[in-house]
Description:
Bound molecules: adenosine-5'-triphosphate, magnesium ion
Amino acid sequence: MNGYINADYTFHLDKNSAQVIQNIIGTTDSFANCIMSTMLTSVANSINILSISVLLCIVNPWAVASLLFVVIPLFFLFNFFKDKMRFWGKELYEANQGIIRSINHGLGGFKETRIIGCGEYFERETIDQAIRFANASIAFYAFKLSPRFIIETILVMFLVAFTSILLLLGQNIQQLSSILSIFALASIRLIPAFTNLTNGLSVLRNSSYDLNQLYSDLKELEKNPNLKPIERASITKEKIDFRKEIILDSITYRYPNVSKNALNEISLTLSKGQSIALIGQSGAGKTTLVDVILGLLTPQQGDIKVDGISIYGNLRSWQNLIGYIPQSIFLIDDTIEKNIAFGVPENEIDQQRLDKAIQAAQLSEVIENLPNGLKTRVGERGVMLSGGQRQRVGIARALYHEREILVLDEATSALDNETEQLVTEAIKSLSGVKTTIIIAHRLTTVEHCDRIYMLEKGRIVKSGSYQEVVLKEQAIR
Length: 477
Ligand SMILES: Nc1ncnc2c1ncn2[C@@H]1O[C@H](COP(=O)(O)OP(=O)(O)OP(=O)(O)O)[C@@H](O)[C@H]1O
Ligand SMILES: [Mg+2]
């Protein structure tokens, strides 16, 4: 969890959440139960086998030598199946992940699934993965059990054959029975130790695929400079104080594994207290630019400087200045209160700040009408609220944290005209105090902004006041 939560945003862009969940829950479990504990018991079993073998060697070296002759080929036989073990391990890992993924897809988009009528498709997909899981399990567990039966049978046959041969050779039966009783006693410990050891080797092979997945993720996350104790990071790095201006200096950004730049040499300046708007067609790069400003995406070229200090020296300190309202608000399955004071323990929630945020976001009436007021649960992803209410919770969240810079990505697009106006009023009344960056499709929303930037295919094609950019454009049309 530490690794994943501190990972770069781009790391998560191409990771499926099913794999992350599987790694955090399943693979760590298999590391503890299948790898660590198996290695420990295998060491114990090897010591047992070794010491009993030494005892038997002292009693009768010939018997041990011929026993080894029978047992060693068995080991090679099991070893022959090592690739199969790995394969079954891979199947188990992937099928398990597939099950989580198809449950997520089918039930996560329940409305769409029901209306389109494709429930059966997701059910089939889940069942297919479950069957794949079952088949790999059957094969693996059957194989894991087989050494026990084979070894037991072979050892018993060996004892019978060995005794018969010695009797035929005319050995004294009394002398023989004392040796045999030692062998019989030893085999009581030896057989389980042997079968456990071969079981253990199978389990290790089987889990190696899981372990590799976890290892490669951890290795990749290790490279991430964020993965350091927060205290250490803030001591060594310069704190970012925003007094005058933010300068974006020729920012160029390209998403990983994409050949085209999403942003091309974007430069702009934002003074304290100013509000700017980013407008442009869908896909123009507005959200990408905001993600770069937020420090979620690191540009390949260019720099963002706050009063002359690059934000990349201390991202945490920079992000501590920002309140962000995304295009789609993520709500947790908890009370409204905890959704607004996101990530703050319940006993540390500041009621005054909460009230202020609720009022500014035009949420007071909504909350009054809820059965338990602020303590009403909103359901998973806020399903018990309307789209506009969800968005207002997102706005209240950004306001609660009282950050100096507000970034709004289509923050008011789900609101009706009247509510939007009220929210915009509230935000406007904050401008002058707060610095705001607004993305909006509805141009009336950005009328009050000091400067408008129009984006097209990742470039700023026009900038200036509302009159210059929007009204002129409309006049031309
Ligand atoms: N994770 C990603 N990987 C690759 N390309 C991406 C990724 N996210 C966005 N893009 C591409 O980058 C371009 C800009 O997307 P962006 O989300 O910034 O647009 P936008 O201006 O916010 O659009 P909208 O108004 O619809 O929200 C688009 O062409 C999009 O396909
Ligand atoms: Mg967008």
